[in-house]
Amino acid sequence: MKELKAFFTKTPTGGIFLALILVCALFSSMTSRFLTPTNISVILNQVSVNAILAFGVTFVIIAGGIDLSLGSLVAVCGVVVALLSQNNEYSLWLAIIGTLIAGIALGALNGIIVVLTKVPPFIVTLGTMTIGRGVALILSKGRPISDLNESLNFLGNGDLLGIPIPILFLVLSYATCHILLTKTIFGRYVKAIGGNEMASYVAGVRVNRIKLYVYMISGLFAALAGILLTARINTGQPNAGLGFELDAIAAVIIGGTSTRGGKGTITGTLLGVLFIGVINNGLDLINVSAYWQQVIMGGIIILAVVLDGLYQKLKMNI
Amino acid sequence: MAEQDCLLKIKGISLAFSGTPILKSVDLSLYQGEIHALVGENGAGKSSLFKCILGIISPSQGEIIFLNESLSGYSIRDILRKGIAMIHQELMLIPELTVAENIFLGRETTQGKRMGLSEINQATTDLFREYDLDIPFGAFVKDLSIAHQQIIEIMRSVSQKARLILMDEPTSSLTEKEVVFFRQLIFRLKSEGISIVFTSHKMDEVFDFSDKISVLRDGEMVGTFSKAEVDPMSLVKKMVGREMKDFYPNALSEVGQAIIRVNDLSCVPHFEHVNFTLHAGEVLGLSGLVGAGRSDIGQVLFGVKKKTSGTMYLKGQEYNPGNPSEALQAGLGYLGEDRKEMGIIPEMNMTENMSLGLLDAYRKFLFIDQEKESLDAAEMQSRLSVHSAKEGQRIQNLSGGNQQKVLFGRILLNNPEVLILDEPTRGIDVMSKFEIYTLILALKKQGKAILLISSDLPELLAMSDRVIVISKGKQMAELSREEASPEKVLEYSLH
User: Fold this and answer.
1) Cα(B242)–Cα(B234) distance, rounded to whole angstroms?
2) What is the per-residue DSSP string for B122-152?
3) From A1-10, A137-146, B364-373, the region with the lowest mean pLDDT
4) Does A45-287 carry CATH code 1.10.3470?
């Protein structure tokens, strides 16, 4: 009991974890279709794209930045992987690696502009968001790209030992990002520059380099998300990923990462993603209309952050 | 003094936060027209005492009597109206409003009649004329110096007819020249019967300004003394509760070879044509008013700012760091002027703050060798006696003195040959100051070359082997330890 209390009060993600358990309990009591192995698998599958995006952008936000271009990068990379795997022209591996490199390059572009111009990242990525959308439309000539390599479809809809591939990617991405943030020099410096950029610079941290890297990571995971999305719908869609950046950022914030930078966890982000996913899924199951779902979702995001603030205060007194 | 002159009487107030006693049955009497210094180490309870007087927190025991009336049960606003004002260390002005608007903020409708902009401006002009202040009433507060902003706050208290003004480290961000003006102003207030209680870590000011000195230690009132009863040494002893041999430890050591040579160095618009040599085993003091360019010299040496012309040599080799990381690798260490801005990462703990920028030494492939990191930090912690309440505590919850020691730890972990220390003891308690002086001396004995930048003149003169005086970006004088008297340094600074 003591350990349990300590978990909820001492760990930074205890609050969101508690909230997740509460909504799960709520939906289980309302419908028997919620807490079934199939539905859990469905939820994880549904959230995988958002999770992968959110893991990447967590680094950007902890470093004190923001990346609004995520959704557009998903579209560009989705179109790129579709073009590369159309009509079996190139091998699947080449298509995937090429797309991941494209994602890193686009992220690097964000990073370079942020570092060189000192324009706030909000503005820079707002610009590249629009540019990216345009590029996706140019590359695809405004049309969906079909006739894709069949093995690509496997990435989106297949499974390995009964586990859907997107969920495997989710788990892999989670582990990689978690280790990167908590165990590596890079992760420590990401938190440092988000906590106090000037102090980090004076202490000898190569601030610009770290900033560039976080946008590259964000781009890499956007590319991975784009590949999975294209694979799932078996088409390269220039209009894919619209508004994805907002879902990802919402998950990061619900997961306890400070928008002012300096602190946050990948586990928190995962819980934030699951929280959003569970609510969407649960509202579907109890037949709330899609219109009302949006209203409820928005309210919950605000509520979650408000409650987390109260909870943090409460924790101080326990 | 007769009992009826007593303005404020504190009778046995006690206060505790979650079981930890902060104030233990504190008594204090203040008289009209008295300047009273409240001294004690950080955490001794000075700020808590101020908060009790202002009604921000209510004591668990005891009573505060102001003008023969108990203040218990009154709100902060009521207490302000009764004539107690506070000047906080972080000033509480609205930068985007004018001087006059700030002074009358929240009081535009006094006595039922609304004061228009012209009335406010007129009232401010009259007030400033009365006090011989040369600050334009229409200037925006954001364009004023810290010293002027502080005067605006004091004037706000005066215009509110304050009888008692509490000031928390009022001189900590002022230059020598500004302190002189500040002194005149508080003596003027005193002559009008206004009482002032202030805190300060600077002994010379405590003795210069005050009529009486009260000492708090660990929440207890050690006593109230007149200036005749104590001297700086005995006062420090009362504050820390033990003997200290000499506040500024010093010993001349062998000065070694030249480590840094600066030739006609300029960083326009901050400073121009600076020349000096810094030797191993030497403390070179850089003196000057705030904004004279002394901090910028340190920043150029450490690669934070870029030189515009001139040359720097490190052990005979030309040296021009592109960024702090290069300076670090070249064997320099740097302590920035402002701990909050250029020093600590508030959310991180002691260990993470110490190893910041030095993690390549703890690299295991991509990962941090956290075991070795904690071990080194712990060793540094005991060497510098950093007091951290519990393991993993965030540095923002440590006292200023301990934060500063952690930053010293960061420098020493890299074992530099040259240390650039900008305001190493600003805003920290007496005991930590003493420890830092001892440390600087030990480093000097080890043969480190130390560039000391400080606005605390007694400190600078006591610690330095030579002093360079900078004024308005120009090098005015280089004085030996014997030549460097406070008067002489100040004269060159004001040149």
Assistant:
1) 10
2) HHHHHHHHHTT----TTSBGGGS-HHHHHHH
3) A1-10
4) yes
User: Helical H runs in A234-289?
Assistant: 244-254, 266-285
Contacts of A178 in chain B (CB under 8 A): none
* B287 vs A232: CA distance, rounded Å: 68
| B475-493 average pLDDT score | 85
For chain A, domain boundaries: 45-287
At CA A246, angle to CA A244 and CA A249, rounded to 5?
110
Cα A296 to Cα A254, A290, A309, A310, distances in angstroms: 15, 10, 20, 21
For A192-215, write each residue's pLDDT tens digit.
Answer: 999 999 999 999 999 999 999 999
- Average confidence (pLDDT) over B49-76: 89
Q: How far is A13 from chain B (nearest CA, A)?
A: 16
Token duo for residue B166: 């509490």
Inter-residue contact B49 to B39 (CB < 8 Å): no
Describe chain A by its helix, strand, coil percentages, rounded to 5: 75, 5, 20
Range list of H helices, A118-164: 121-140, 150-157
Helix (H, G, I), strand (E, B) or coil at B292: coil
B63-72: long-range pairs with CB below 8 Å, 24+: B63/B10, B63/B11, B63/B12, B63/B13, B64/B8, B64/B9, B64/B10, B64/B11, B64/B13, B65/B8, B65/B9, B65/B10, B65/B11, B66/B7, B66/B8, B66/B9, B66/B164, B67/B7, B67/B163
Interface check for B324 against chain A (CB to CB < 8 A): the answer is: yes
Angstrom CA distances, A281 to A287, A296, A302, stand at 10, 13, 19
Total residue length of chain B: 495
- Do A266 and A14 touch, CB atoms closer than 8 A? no
Q: Using CB atoms, which residue from A186, A196, A202 is nearest to B324? A: A202
User: Is the full-model pTM beyond 0.90?
Assistant: no
Does the beta-carbon distance from A195 to B348 stay under 8 Å?
A: yes
Contact B397, B206 (CB under 8 A): no
The tokens describing B445, both together, are 């004995």
What pLDDT band is residue A6 in, cutting at 50, 70 and 90?
Answer: low
DSSP 8-class letter at B322: S
pLDDT over 60 (residue A30): yes
Q: Is the peptide bond before B269 cis (omega within 30 degrees of 0)?
A: yes
Give the pLDDT confidence of A232-289 residue by residue, as tens digits: 999 999 999 999 999 999 999 989 888 888 989 999 999 999 999 999 999 999 999 9
Query: Which of B302, B347, B368 is closest, CB to CB, to A262?
Result: B347
Q: What is the mean pLDDT of chain A?
A: 91
> What is the C-alpha separation between A75 and A227, in angstroms, rounded?
9
Residues of A within an 8 Å Cβ radius of B: 183-186, 188-189, 191-192, 195-196, 198-206, 262-263
In the DSSP assignment, the letter for residue A34 is S
Average pLDDT over residues B312-319: 93
- To probe the interface with A, which of B348, B360, B397, B407 has the most A CB atoms within 10 Å? B348
pLDDT by residue (tens digit) across A47-91? 999 999 999 999 999 999 999 999 999 999 999 999 999 887 788
Q: Is B324 close to A203, i.e. CB distance below 8 A? A: yes
**Contacts B334 to A, Cβ<8 Å:** 202
Sketch out chain B's domains with CATH numbers.
3-240 (3.40.50.300), 258-493 (3.40.50.300)
> Which amino acid belongs to residue B465?
D
